[in-house]
Design a protein that fits this description.
There is one protein chain. This protein has 339 residues and is of the alpha/beta class. It has 3 domains: 35 residues, no CATH class; 57 residues, no CATH class; 233 residues, Ribonuclease H-like superfamily/Ribonuclease H (Nucleotidyltransferase, domain 5, 2-Layer Sandwich). The protein is built from 13 helices and 8 strands. Strands 6-5-4-7-8 form a 5-stranded mixed beta sheet, with helices on both faces.
């Protein structure tokens, strides 16, 4: 009605006539929450400004420790200890948005099969695989990245590796999908800890559908996964303590080169002072059938290496160029450079 007679009188008078407050007339609803938008960064005591994603990573790192069940108040104290100028209200909001508050835990279905023997006695390649994640500090970006590696227990060969800002369950599934496409993981036993990426229902369902056996270490017993822990110790000594990683791409390149060195050139004491790749070849050479199939790989760059060590044929891959985290590319590079 006010708009209908707006050409006859001003808005204030018309509102008085209809008994309507002019503030109500001018009100327009605003979508979203009221007030200022929350900041997307946090200041540290040395004056540096970091994005909230870095804060989230540091919170996850703190909560990722065994037995740590801190609420937002204790997490705020820990953030203060490492130089953050942040109040508990912001910490609560960040933890709430990322489902990190105490009590918000991952619920999984079905029983987990825990390890029965601490030490693994592997008799051939790809009988047992171990997988775990290591934090890597990237100084140039002032944040942690995640390095996930899968190693073969018999040869200590680093089968696959991921270096990313975060590692989710879909990344773990895709990693095992790659390994399955190349080798086949039917019958393989995969040992991991109780990280959220490994206990996820989708990961367990994928491994079960591929007929792989997944076993979990007991809580607070990293010695049950000592094989991958030993690999992380090597990475710490040979890479992290020696190189100043300035960016994601810098780190990715360094870990790619180190993985090639580790697999094909570095002598490993636990397997007789030979390289993991030589250990694999030694097993193949002891099995004539496997050796013949492996010769086919050497000549055609595709093929299979037997029932147990390599279960499926390697397929031609148009993307087999340069060095990548894909095991097929590493095999190709190695075979083409064999004397």
């Amino acid at each position: 009605m006010v708009q209908q007679f707006s050409d006859k009188a001003n808005v204030k008078e018309l509102c008085m006539w209809v008994g309507l407050s002019d503030s109500v007339y001018y009100y327009r609803p605003i979508n979203g929450k009221r007030g200022r938008k929350p900041s997307s960064f946090t200041i540290k005591s040395d004056g540096t400004i970091v994005p909230n994603d870095v804060v989230i990573q540091d919170i996850r790192k703190s909560l990722g420790r065994e037995f740590c069940c801190y609420g937002y108040q204790n997490i705020t104290s820990e953030l203060h200890d490492i130089g953050y100028m942040i109040n508990h209200k912001k910490v609560y909001r960040i933890m709430d948005e990322n489902n990190l508050l105490l009590g918000k835990v991952i619920r999984t279905q079905g029983k987990r099969q825990f390890v029965k023997h601490r030490k693994i006695k592997a008799n051939f390649p790809l009988e047992y695989l171990c997988i775990d994640i290591k934090y890597v500090w990237v100084a140039g970006e002032q944040r942690n990245y995640y390095l996930l590696t899968v190693i073969d227990v018999y040869t200590r060969f680093a089968i696959d590796q991921i270096f990313q800002k975060s590692i989710r369950k879909i990344d773990v599934i895709n990693l095992f999908r790659r390994i399955n496409n190349i080798f086949g993981i039917k019958g393989i036993t995969i040992r991991n800890d109780n990280g959220s990426q490994f206990i996820a229902n989708d990961v367990k369902a994928f491994l079960k559908s591929a007929f792989a056996n997944q076993e979990f270490t007991h809580v607070a017993t990293p010695e049950e996964n000592s094989y991958i822990e030993a690999f992380h110790s090597i990475v710490e000594t040979e890479v992290i303590q020696r190189f100043d990683i300035q960016s994601y791409y810098d780190g990715k390149s360094i870990f790619q080169q180190h993985r090639k060195w580790y697999n094909f050139e570095r002598k490993h004491g636990r397997i007789g002072r030979i390289t993991p790749y030589q250990k694999w070849l030694d097993y193949i050479n002891l099995n004539p059938k496997i050796n013949n199939n492996f010769d086919t790989i050497n000549k055609t760059e595709t093929g299979s290496a037997g029932e147990q060590p390599v279960r499926n044929n390697l397929s031609n891959d148009d993307k087999m160029e340069g060095i990548s985290f894909d095991i097929s590319s590493i095999y190709k590079i190695s075979l083409l450079n064999m004397p």
